[in-house]
Amino acid sequence: MSAPAVNSPAKGSQAAIYLHIPFCRTKCLYCSFNSHAGREGEIAGYLAALNSHIRRLAGHPWCRRQTFFSLYIGGGTPTICAAELLSRLISNCLASFSFSPDPEITVESNPNTLSPAKLQALRQAGANRLSIGVQSFSPAQLQRLGRSHTAEDASLSFAMAREAGFANINLDLMYGLPAQTAEGWQQTLETAISLAPEHFSLYELMVEERTPLAALVADGQYQLPSEDQVADMEIVTAGLLAGRGYERYEISNYARPGFVCRHNINYWQNRSWLGLGAGAVGSLAGTKVTNVADPQVYVQRMSSNEEPYSDMECLCRPALFRETMIMGLRMLAGVSINELEERFQLSPVAYYGQTLQTLLDQGLIVRDDGFLRLSSQALPIANQVLAQLV
Question: Which end of the chain is least crowded, N or C, by CB within 10 Å?
C-alpha cells in the first residue's frame, strides 16, 4: 500500500513560530525537557519578556519577509498561565507578525490546568487547535509517571474543550510504560478513541539520563516492558486506529483526514521556524538559533535589551541535506528526490551511494513515484535505519 500524500504547508517565504512556556505544576518522573515546577511566581514576568521578544523580532528584516502559517505554544505547560496572560500572548503574536489566512494556532495543555473560562478565552484569542497531554487513562500508570492529573480530569478536559468550540484536538499518549501490558495499552487507547479526537501523538517511553525515572529503572524499582511486548503494543495501535479512520502520517502521529499537524510537518520537512522563549530553538533558512534555557536569565537578557541567544549554528549544505533526509523519512510519505535535489543540489542516490542501496536491497527503504520512504518493516526500527544516514 502506498504511503499517504502530505502536502507541504510551508515553502518559499512561509514559516512557523514556536513559543516556549517552561513552567509546570509538577515535574513528571520521565521529563527531561526545559520545564520548571513550583515557579508560578515567575510566569507574569516571563510572559512580559516573551512579549517583548515578539515585538523586537517582528521588526527583523527576515521576519518581515515571512508569512507565518502556524503558531505553536508549547512547554512545559502553557495553560498553567492565567487565561488573560496567555490570550494576550497570542494576540500580540498575531498582531506583530504577518500570518496567512486561517493559520494553525496550537496550545499545549495538561488536563488539570484547563477550565471552561480559560478554554473560551483561548478560542476568542484565536487558538484553534488544542493538544492535551493525557499520557495514559490508567490511574496506576499516571501515578507511576508522576502525573498530577487523573483519568477523569482528562476526559473532563476534553469535553470542556469541545464545549468551548475546539474542533481540532490532539491527545498525547505514551506506551511502553513500566509494568504496562499490551492489554493495558489497548484499554487506554480504546478510551482515548471513544472521545473521538482529530489527532493522536503516540510516543514510546524513552528513559532519559538524569531523570527520576532513570534512577527508578536502574534500581530495579520499575520494570519496563520487553521489546516483544512493546512490539505487541504497536500492533494494537495500528489495528485500532486504522479501523477507526486515523491515518498514520508520521512515525508517532495519526490523524483523521484533513487534520495533520501543519506545524510539525514544517519541522519534519526541515523548513524555517522562529523559536521564542527560554530554551526554544529556531531554524532560519538552515541557521539554528538556540535561546538561553534558564527562564530567569532569559528575562534578564530581555529586560537589559540584550539578545537571549546561547548558541547559533549555520549548517553547511551537506549537513542540512542529511538532516532534511533523516527528518523527512519520519513521514510515511517520505522525501521527494526531486525536491531534495532542487533544495540542496545534491542527489540522495549519489550522496549515500552504497549505504542507501543496501537499505533498498534489504527492503528497509522503498523508492517509488520519485519518493524515498521507510518500508512498513522499517517503521518499528526506524531509529536504527535512520542512524545509517546521519
Answer: N
Helix axes 227-242, 182-194, angle to 10 degrees: 30
Distance (Å, rounded) from C-alpha 56 to C-alpha 318?
A: 32
The residue type at 326: I
> d(Cα 379, Cα 362) in Å, to the nearest integer?
14
The 10 Å Cβ neighbour count of residue 296 is: 15
Within the chain, how many helices (H) and strands (E) appear?
A: 16, 17
For the stretch 74-111, what's the b/e string if a residue is b when 16 or more beta carbons lie within 10 angstroms of its beta carbon?
bbbbbbbbebeebbbbbebbbebbebeeebbbbbbbbb
Class of domain 14-268: alpha beta
Q: Where are the domains of the chain?
A: 14-268, 318-387
pLDDT band at 82 (very low <50, low <70, confident <90, very high): very high
Question: What count of other Cβ atoms lies within 10 Å of the Cβ of residue 114?
Answer: 23
Is the predicted pLDDT of residue 113 greater than 80, yes or no?
Answer: yes
CATH class for domain 318-387?
mainly alpha
CA 25 to chain centre: 20
Q: Measure the CA–CA gap between 184 and 227, rounded to whole angstroms.
A: 16
- The set of cell numbers assigned to 231 is 512490539
Question: Length of the chain, please?
Answer: 390
| Nearest in space to 332 (alpha carbons), one of 377, 374, 269, 380 | 374
Is the pLDDT assigned to residue 286 strictly greater than 90? no
* Residues 5, 280, 20, 159, Cα dihedral to 10°: 30
Mean pLDDT of the chain: 94
Instruction: Please check the confidence at residue 1 and state whether its pLDDT lies above 90.
Output: no
